[in-house]
Each structure stands twice: as C-alpha cells, then as structure tokens.
Amino acid sequence: MTKQTQLGKSGIYINPIGLGTNAVGGHNLYPNLDEEAGKDLVRTAIKNGVNFIDTAYLYGPGRSEELVGEAIKETGKRDDLIVATKGSVKFVNGEMQHDNTPSFLKQEVENSLKRMQTDYIDLYYIHYPDGVTPGYEAVGALKELKDQGKIRAIGLSNFSLDQLKEANKDGYVDVYQGEYNLIQRSAEKELLPYTAEQNISFIPFFPLASGLLAGKYNKDMKFNDLRANMPHLQGEEFEKNLEKVEQLREIANAKQAEVAHIVLAWYLTRDSIDAVIPGAKNADQVLNNLKTLDVQLTENEIAKIDSIFK
Ligand code: NAP
Predict the structure, then answer these.
(1) Which of 3, 155, 177, 247 has the lowest CB atom count within 10 Å?
(2) Residue from 222, 285, 287 to probe ligand 1 pocket by mutation (most atoms less than 8 Å from CB)
(3) Domains and CATH numbers, the chain
(4) Would the CB of 288 count as within 6 Å of ligand 1?
(5) 177 CA closest ligand 1 atom index
(6) pTM for this entry
(7) Separation of 22 CA from ligand 1 center, angstroms?
(8) How far is CA 2 from CA 50, 57, 78, 84, 303, in A?
C-alpha cells in the first residue's frame, strides 16, 4: 500500500483502506459470529498492509476490542498500527446509555487499554454525544489523556454539526466518524464541508451500506441481524437500490473491477474523506476490499457514480 494520508492535523499517517471490526466479536450486533474467523480477518488485514483498525467498546460489548487486541499482539506489529476505539456507552439495567463526563471517559479509556492489551490508543472517539455534558468539556478530558500519551488523536462520532462545532471550540478534534455512503448522503450538506474546512478527517461508517454496495445481494435476501431494521434493505426501497447497484456494476465491469472497489474508491475522492473502514466477515472480504487500491476513477466515472445516487 503506497499512498498514506494524514488523520486530520494529528501528524498520524494511515493507509486509506482501513478495517472496521464490528463483526469481530460484535455478538450483540450479529448473531453466530465465529471469533476465530474474526481474529483471522484482523491478522490477514495487518499482514497485507492495512494499518488503520476501527473498533469500539460497544461491539460485543468489549469483545471486539479483546479479539482485535489479541490478533494485533499475535502479529507483533502493534507499533506499526493506528488503532481506533470508541467509548461513551454504558449499560444500565440492560439499557444502553451514553456518558460523556470527563471521569467516565477517562475510566473508559483505561478499560479499553486493558481489553486491547496495549498502553496507548492511537485514536479515541466519543462514540455518541450524551446530550448533557458540554462537548468541549468532554473533548478537554481527551486532550488531557493525549497530553499524558494515553491517546494520540481525538475523535467524535454521531455528533450533529452544532454539537461538533461546540465540541471543537478549541480546535482539538482530529477526526469525525459519521454515517455516509452512496445511499445515505446527508453528511454532504454540512458535515463534510465543515470537516474539510477545519482539517478534520471524515471517516464514513457503513461505507458499503452494510453490504448492499458490495454488489452481491438480491431481492430475496433476508436479514436476521441489525440489517433487519434498515429501511434501505427492505421492500421497494431495497429493490430500487439493487437497480442502482446494477448500474454501478456496469461501470465496474468496464474497468475490470468490482462494485465494492469503485464505491470505496469514490469516497476517497471526497474532500475530507482520508480513509475508509469497510467491515468484513472473513479474510477473503478483507483481501478483496484491498483491490480498491488498484482502481483509478476518471472524472467522468466519478460524476456518473454521483448521479446514479443523486
Ligand atoms: P459496511 O462496511 O458498510 O459493510 C460491511 C459488510 O459488507 C460486511 O460485514 C460484509 O457483510 C459485506 N462485505 C464487506 N466487504 C465485502 C466484499 N469485499 N465482498 C462482499 N461483501 C462484503 O458496514 P459496517 O461494517 O457496519 O461499517 C464499517 C465499520 O464502521 C464497522 O465495522 C465499524 O467499525 C464502524 N461503524 C461505526 C459506527 C459508529 O457509530 N461510529 C456505526 C457503524 C459502524 P456480509 O458478508 O454479511 O454481506
């Protein structure tokens, strides 16, 4: 992997094809996950040049961080990797809540360090706003951890534009992670321009629209996991989206590429998107997504892909 990009203004460089690991030990999101397949896909990613790995306490909860940590340890490449995790989540009587208070975030960073068997986290995100703690106070707590060397960069996820602006009052935010893909493009209105202007990297989650944009689904697919409640994968909307995927396939075929590759390459042409973190269920998908690096989209193709999903 050649071209590296900088995470915001952090001075940290990453390869543009990263790895999302909510299906590595994320038993609360996907039933019947095979933990060995999960560890194997993380090791495969690392051995093949992926250096940006995304996890969170929520996935498991805690189990994804543990498995990712074990896999990293086994490769012996911790210091070559940029490991991102997220916190804010707590479970009260089985119900998920969010807490952005400085004391909670500091404790959660300690817990993540233990679960991942490491002594620093390259990028720590506040996973969700709690709606109470002023964002700049929460970010201030992460800035203290950064000054202590426990984390190297500060991220926010799922904050609205106003919440992000408030939290970034002192300019400490390096990375923003939000939902963005060809089907869900609302971030284009305000979040992408703001992050570009502020030199904050925008890392899109659900880049493959939870698998739809990998181009292998058909209208008879039934989902029994978190995808069962996603409108873009149900009924008429699903069928319309599948038709659009067929239009992508024509563009991909003409370049001897696959749908997933031109989709991931397209995101990397957006202003503040410095990397993508497609998730995977097995090592083959990880290797397949790395072929994105061979794809060079022309201006005409970029515009065509844009217009299919306008
Ligand atoms: P995604 O990247 O849009 O889709 C991943 C799914 O697509 C895989 O699980 C796999 O599902 C399919 N896939 C991937 N590569 C493929 C390939 N080459 N060929 C065929 N199928 C392929 O969705 P995601 O994993 O949920 O999102 C990416 C990452 O973003 C997550 O792993 C997580 O780290 C992060 N995330 C963050 C938040 C947040 O709140 N900050 C929210 C969601 C996700 P199947 O094999 O089942 O089809």
Answers:
(1) 3
(2) 285
(3) 5-212+260-298 (3.20.20.100)
(4) yes
(5) 41
(6) 0.97
(7) 7
(8) 11, 31, 20, 21, 26
> Nearest to residue 276, comparing CAs of 260, 253, 294?
260
Percent of the chain as helix, strand, coil, to the nearest 5: 45, 15, 40
Helix (H) or strand (E) holding 284: helix 283-290
What contacts 85, CB < 8 A, 6 or more positions away?
Answer: 54, 55, 56, 57, 65, 112, 116, 121, 123, 124, 125
Please confirm, yes or no, whether 59 is among the known catalytic residues: yes
Query: Taking Cα atoms as reference points, which of 285, 82, 277, 299 lies closest to residue 178?
Result: 277
Q: Say whether 121 sits in a helix, a strand or coil.
A: strand
Mean pLDDT per segment of 10 residues, for the chain of length 310 residues?
85 97 97 96 98 98 98 98 98 96 98 98 98 98 98 98 98 98 97 98 98 96 92 96 98 98 98 96 98 97 97
